[in-house]
Amino acid sequence: MRNPAPSSPIKALALLVVTMATALLSACGGDGGASGGRPEVVATTSIAADIVGRVGGDAVDVVQLVPDGASPHSYAPSAREQQELDESDLVVYFSPALEEGLPLDLAARRFAFADHAGSVGEDPHLWLDPTLIAAALPDLAAALAEIDPAGAEGYRRRARDYAGELADLDRELTKMVETVPPGSRKLVTSHDLMGYFGARYGFEITGAPFGLSPEAEASAGELAELIDRIRVESVPAVFAQQGDDPEVLRRVAEEADVEVVDDLLLETLGPEADSYVAMMDASTSRIVTALGGR
Asked: Which pTM does this prediction carry?
């Protein structure tokens, strides 16, 4: 009986290539795919993305949905972004009252800070009180651990460390605000987003002509009433965030003869404040200075 002929070098090479390709596809075929096995987390805004990145570290891929400068109140996703929402391992957002244009209910796994920050009301801008974000961090770490059990301890550790950093931030903001004369701790903002900030740091919300959403409109009568209130209560300055239409606040400031600060970062990060902590520090400093503090 003849022995079988040995395989040719070309056939052996082809077999090796097929074997290696199969092994590579198998390795990439689990959760995370192109991300090297890391879960993908879609965060709605740059602020949410920064917070998730601090807790997730290098163990997760974070995708920011709403571009910097765009309003999370009215942003609607493109077809590609909708696919990212649908295919992500977790979607992190603040509140349905904020990201109301996003079909977040279609995501398989969702984490809303408003559901984990303690007792919060209808105002969705809860990140403007860093203690509320700190309160939600253990649950955020747990949500990340659900999609990546192997990274659970890392998520818990980074959440604890970040909570400590937010506690330091809270103390620093408190010290800043204490330099503002008590009678000047009054906030007039383009839309009603400073409620948690005011409650935490002792500011009175004197007026917000656009309500909770910057897309709302104020009547002439409401604006006239606000101007009278600013004069009567000796409000030193009025504020608008980047992205809001500043013209109404500029007109109010001119009529009331007060300063207007119309470039605050409050709902998004930017080149001058590229992290949540830096944004809170910079915005509070601007507010404090305009109201007579230091």
From this structure: 0.85
